[in-house]
Amino acid sequence: MNKSIRSIIIVFIVTVCTHALAVAKLPQDFDEPIYVDVAVDYARAMKRGDLNAIIDHPDVREHPALVKLSYAASISAIGIADNYSESLETSRIVSAVFGVLATILVAIFDPFAGGLMAIHALVVKYSSQAYLEAIPLAFTIFSVLTFLRTNIEKRDAWFWLSAFALGVSTAGKFTYTPVLVIVLAYLAFFEKKIPFRWMVLFGVISVAAFFALNVTFWHHPVDRVMEALEYHASYQTGAHVAEVNYPWYQPFKWIFTDTPGDWHGGIFLYDIDPFIAAFAFAGILREWKERRWLVIWLVTGIIFLLLWGTKWPQYVLTIVPAICIMAAESARRFYHWFTHLSYYKTI
Asked: Phi/psi zone of residue 223: left (φ > 0), alpha (ψ -120 to 50 degrees), beta?
């Protein structure tokens, strides 16, 4: 067994443990009852065979249906729709499975980066609770990494898988899409020089996957697209956002400060998130020369987070994969520099 495989196995063990602990120990968070209630309604509609009740469900149409349907499928399969606590736990387990998958995808690309994601407090928290983050996070990472492997001259499958994954990510949650599209466009036109006609087909596949997986848009798609856009536009200036009153720079606070202990029930002995971010930002100039797509991912994501009126902490997950990959390389180089320096000091 080579070193890389051993490292991935270690990351897998660590991320399973952190997610399992989070599923079991995290207190119920603000949005979990909202999503679980919808998932329970979906599960009951599945039992009745009432597809229209799912398509036309009136609640939380501002978000696509895929994640809630994933929760509902598990709740329905186990037959626990009448038990909220079990439905919540089952939904958390579904979320954690995709949170583990997201971490392993990063670990396949860079085992050390995957290790950082496995202990990143915000990642573990929001991909273990019944939130909407884990599935779009996993498919965002998958879309980028498969696109990196694309060889359009060979017409390989990676290109089509990346397009499909973009559609799945969008069907999971809209907020991952703007940054992902820009990263993929940069890779396509500036690094891989993929012809525009192929990227049009890429977009068609992504849109088709999105509509196939987002049942909310199966009826009156134009009206419901407008409804979702109008909701997000009004929500950013609504009473709840105004009451919380996060400053415009709040995303930097989520990235660079410790996660409040009462958020995660004290299950993390050390909050390493600020150190990961510091190593990542220290490597921006290096990555601009060597892996510019990572800087595009990070900077585009930060700009989006700063401009977006809603500053909830889970939105930071859109850029955490890039942060962990950049931080891993910075930490490796710092370690080599330090050990080299120490070696010469002992001579």
From this structure: alpha
Neighbour-count burial for 253-270, b at 16+ CB within 10 Å, e otherwise: ebbeeebeeeebeebbee
Residues found in the chain: 347
Tell me the pTM.
Answer: 0.96
Residue type, 305: L
First-last CA distance in the chain: 36
At position 43, the amino acid (one-letter code) is A
How many Cα atoms are found within 13 Å in the side-chain-facing hemisphere of 187? 23
Rounded-to-integer distance, Cα 72 and Cα 76, Å: 6
| ∠ Cα 238 42 212 (to 5°) | 85
Q: Torsion angle, CA of 200/203/204/209, rounded to 10 degrees?
A: 160
Q: With contact defined as beta carbons under 8 Å apart, do 152 and 159 qualify?
A: yes
Query: pLDDT digits over 225-279, tens only?
Result: 888 888 877 888 777 888 889 999 999 999 998 766 556 666 766 679 999 999 9
Q: Determine contact, residues 137/125, Cβ cutoff 8 Å.
A: no
Q: Rounded to an integer, what distance in angstroms lies between the CA atom of residue 288 and that of residue 224?
A: 39
105-125 b/e (C-beta count within 10 Å ≥ 16 → b): bbbebbbbbbbbbbbbbbbbb
Q: Where are the alpha helices (DSSP H) in 79-128?
A: 84-109, 111-118, 121-126
